[in-house]
């Protein structure tokens, strides 16, 4: 075959071994023209060989018709052209066969060998024919150089041009096929890149939603839990102790304002980080989609990190004080020398203590609680442990629980490479412990 189009043949719809219908039409036309040429040349061959003329014509037609197989079996066609060279027929057959062989996917050594055979055969026939013409020509006398010159020129003219043209066409075809395969490979790679970038962006958006959910849970759950506790106390003492009721009402107002402030800060960050609305992805080329998706993923991952606006470990005293004002008995101890940590570490440590205290308000109201903070060389550790709650107090709290507090704390700590442990104590209380690397 002259091409590697075996794979594309079914899609092209060509008959038999042809890739396209126009290729089949071309080969039929060339075979017909070659058959006519060889039929005419078969007449003098039959006279010289002492055969009937019709046998020479039939032989010529069959010989020229082998050109129909030039794409399927180019070697066989070249061998036929070499075999009929002594009969001085098949010039067109030789030229087209050499071109087809050179343009095919055959190894270069086979192409070179068959081309040399064709050149030698043509050279020998040209020498014999030139000598015969010299013998029968009495008026035209030339030197001894004329016969070799004519023979070599004729042989090169018959074999060299189709051979070189076939090599050029074959190389160009292979180059185009390789470029097309490379283009398809690049398109597949860009498509995979776009899909992976979209997956990364979706993952980053999911992480961002999870982070926002944790922040909202920590802010709302803790503040609102304290507000509910103070509201319950306010309801209990409103008539008996007006001054204490006023104090509790002021605390509820402060808690609400703090919750609203933190919510506004979080919503402001979300609004500022909203993606710009521009051209849709459908109007961009595939490469731009991949790069845009990768940029979106990178931006979302960058936004997924905690903001640098707090809270900080230095604010734990205020947090514990709020729980004390809500009626909880809290003891706080600090070990080691206090120092500054990375923003993510301080925020995570604060949120762990905050959520643990919120859980005590929800599930163990009235229980004595111990908050421990330890500053170590390469880590910071925190622990919140409460004693068993009084039964009446636990039954009267009535605070809803979503069940996501411990999960959120564990996720926060795991994101920083820390260790989180929670569970009931032997005394009937509950303990939350976390250790974070001091990065």
Structural description of this entry:
The protein has helices spanning 9-12, 21-49, 53-65, 74-83, 91-103, 108-136, 146-237, 242-272, 286-304, 316-325, 343-363, 391-395, 405-415, and strands at 330-335, 369-375, 379-386, 419-424, 430-437. It has 439 residues and is of the alpha+beta class. Among the domains are: 9-141, no CATH class; 310-439, Heat Shock Protein 90. It starts with 8 loop residues before the first helix and ends with a strand. 30% of the residues are buried.
Question: What's the topology here?
Answer:
Blueprint lengths: L8 H4 L8 H29 L3 H13 L8 H10 L7 H13 L4 H29 L9 H92 L4 H31 L13 H19 L11 H10 L4 E6 L7 H21 L5 E7 L3 E8 L4 H5 L9 H11 L3 E6 L5 E8 L2
Parallel strand pairs: 1-2
Antiparallel strand pairs: 2-3, 3-5, 4-5
Helix pairs in contact: 2-3, 4-5, 4-6, 5-6, 5-7, 6-7, 7-8, 7-9, 7-11, 10-11, 11-13
Largest sheet: 5 strands, mixed
Distance N terminus to C terminus? 67 Å
Mean pLDDT: 77
Strand content bin: 5-15%
Query: What structural category do the secondary elements indicate?
Result: alpha+beta
Q: How many individual β-strands?
A: 5
Instruction: Encode the helix/strand succession as letters.
Output: HHHHHHHHHHEHEEHHEE
Percentage of residues in helical conformation: 55-70%
Shape descriptor reads rod-shaped
Low-confidence stretches: 1-12, 276-307, 393-397
Radius of gyration: 47 Å
For the largest beta sheet, what order do the strands appear in spatially? 1-2-3-5-4
Count helical runs: 13
EC number: 2.7.13.3
InterPro entries: HATPase_C_sf, Sensor_HK_TwoCompSys, Sig_transdc_His_kin_sub3_dim/P
Protein name: histidine kinase
Keywords: ATP-binding, Coiled coil, Kinase, Membrane, Nucleotide-binding, Phosphoprotein, Transferase, Transmembrane, Transmembrane helix, Two-component regulatory system
